Amino acid sequence: MFKEAVIDGLWKQNPGTIQLLGLCPTLAITTSVINGLSLGLATMFVMIIANSSISPIRRFVPDEVRVPIFILVIAALVTVVDLSIHAFAEPLYKALGIFIPLIVTNCIVLARVESFASKNPTLPSFFDGLFMGLGLCFVLIILGGMREFLGQGTLFSGFDLVFGQSLSGIGINFFDQYSGFLLAILPPGAFLGLALLIALVNWIDQKD
Amino acid sequence: MNDFIKKNKIVGRTVLVMIIFGIIFSTILEFVHNKTNPIILKSEAEAKERLLLQVISKDLYNNDLINSFIDIKPNQRLKNREMIKGYVARNNNEVTAVILETRAPDGYSGEIKILVGIDKNGNILGTRVIKHQETPGLGDYIDIAKSNWINIFTFSSLENTSQSEWAVKKDQGKFDYISGATITARAVTKAINEALNYFKENKLKMGINV
Q1: Which of A114, B42, B134, B206 is deepest in the core (most CB within 10 A)?
Q2: pLDDT tens digits, one per residue of A165-186
């Protein structure tokens, strides 16, 4: 059960490269590693609590209206996360801003609740949320890294804005005079980058 | 008839479950909101003062800056659509500087909000972009978090910079810009110039008669 969740979430059913769900944030946010990582972590957190809170109440939810109720629960949970981050982690809130409320509309959250948590016990649902979220997070980081490297010639820049001043030295600048490859930062770069990533995953899968 | 009752029973049960879920989660939200709201308001006020302190320095005033403001009606210069606050810094009751919020409606993607600190003689003390949606990695150099560009306006005024010089270098003006994102710099420059003009026209109202 645990092993299955790991393999499914990280590779076989990866939300970013195989299920292709929740693409809107994947494409919009991944202009740098830090953006990808921040949204990935927030989404993962929401997926974990959404899965593990809907699984125990799944017997009380009538089949006909399960989707509205799931949406209600997810929206409430995301609002709680949003308010808490705003109150207790203001720098993080400033960096993520509008992306946190937008997690409600991320269909990967609803998809995992609907296809997994509503049919399985709590512990497997927890693992499903954790590893599906982690899988998405990895894709966001890799895509963000590709676009940041090509677009700005840097990696890990801006970590201090989210995780505090102590990390201000972590950013790497690869070129002295780099005017930037604009296409990578703009939306087409997201589509091209994701396509390359999916192609790579398919290529690796086919070799086996 | 039996069928009818059966159907209605399902409908009733469904409605009941939805109402119960609605009530439970509204209660949770209300609870969390009540717990977090005071903290959020407090940190927003602190953030506001930190923000104001980025455009004027602390030794310029000894009044309670956050509560020392004039209301500014919507006008063509600052482009505000609703009442906004203009903060007035006083040192021993004498006005030393004002902080205005100006908008550039013609940014590359949407409105840019800029905070401008102006001393009593009309010189710019500091400028900060406080809200924008410019392209990441391209137009976002106006944000102090990304580059120091916004500081080029410091010490400029309507006196030491003529109206035609209040433009980016591409438009024969005085101010630098980063090529590829001229529209952004042009919008910001114009908005800051408008703020200075607003100050010039309204400084009497703010208690400045130099």
Answers
A1: B134
A2: 676 677 778 777 777 788 888 8
Cβ partners under 8 Å of residue B129, min gap 6: B112, B113, B114, B115, B142, B143, B144, B150, B188
For residues B42 and B62, state if they share a domain: no
Determine, yes or no, domain membership for B208: no
Same domain, B89 and B139: yes
User: Which residue of A30, A38, A74, A86 is the best one to mutate when testing the B interface, meaning the one whose CB has the most B CBs within 10 A?
Assistant: A86
Domain ranges, ordered by start, for chain A? 2-207
Q: Same domain, yes or no, for B196 and B126?
A: yes
Name the residue range of residue B131's domain: 56-202
pLDDT for A154: 82
Query: How far apart are alpha carbons A122 and A126 in whole angstroms?
Result: 6
The C-alpha atoms of residue B146 and residue A206 are separated, in whole angstroms, by: 43
Residues of chain B with pLDDT under 50: none
pLDDT of residue A165: 67
pTM to 2 decimal places: 0.69
Q: pLDDT tens, A66-79?
A: 888 999 989 998 99
Residues B88 and B169 reside in one and the same domain: yes
End-to-end CA, chain B:
89
Task: Search chain A and give the residue with CA nearest B17.
Answer: A61
Which residues in chain A have their CB less than 8 angstroms from residue B22's CB? 72
Q: Are A180 and A165 in contact (CB under 8 A)?
A: no
